[in-house]
Amino acid sequence: MDQQTATLTLTNQQYGFQFQKKTTDGTDLSADQLKAMQFNLTQYSDNSFQQVSKTNAITSTDLQALAPGYYGIQEAAAPTGYQLDGTTYLFQLTSDGQWQYHGTKDNVTSGSVINGQQTLNPVGDKSDDFTVTGDHQQILTLTKYDEPKPSMTLRVIKQDNQSQYLAGAAFTLQPSAGEAETITSSATSEGQAFATKLVADGTYTMSETKAPDGYQSNPAKIAIQVATTGKEATVTIDGEALKPGESKNGYTLAIDGSTITLQAINQPLAILPHTGGQGYQRLLGIALGLISAAFLLLLVVLIKRRVVKQHD
Q: Could you list the residue range(s) of the whole structural domain that residue 188 is in?
């Protein structure tokens, strides 16, 4: 009896979860913004999603290997400048390799198979979703949207004491969370040196690090606290409150709705005469004239004294 040899190939697939971050305003998130982001991936021991087995913090979009079981995914920290959404989405990886959606922690459902795209909660005019593609059935992808925090616009108008708009000043703007931003002023027809967003519930400090050519630098330190609503702000200059309409240390404040305007004044540098120039010669001439006048006055006094003595 002939023996036949059969070859059986077994393919083991690694199942896993990953996420991608998007914003409702379509802004591409920077590396610095993404550093602040974190998700919590929780494994549960039963289909009631009550008994927690373990929770892992995820700070990258790398694939997270998963075994069959019950899971919840929650945004724990939003990217810088965006609002946190604390919704926990529940899902299951079955023993036969199916992904099922079980609602949210506040509204647990019996589970439905995720086939293609599963629409989740709305976020602004977008919606989060779970996706399982035909080519990668073993990977569940969460697309998570975030809305920008409310913000105010800071406008700085740079001019001299003659109301001439100035360019070439450099400012440092330091948020309480994040890296400092260096801004070089330009001179637009409206005098706007620069404009930038200040996120709600944030504190910012601003100072001039370079004056326009021919002008004195203004060493004042500005601090701006934006309210949680993004509609109000408190401004101080060198530790003293600066109210709308007030002027202190070369700065004047105006607040119109969600726009903060700071008018920043620079004084021109004093012009000193050059040695050997016309200014120096003019001063020398004046000095010589005064010396000559004093000499003539002294001579007149001496002559009068001599006349008086001769008369006596």
A: 151-266
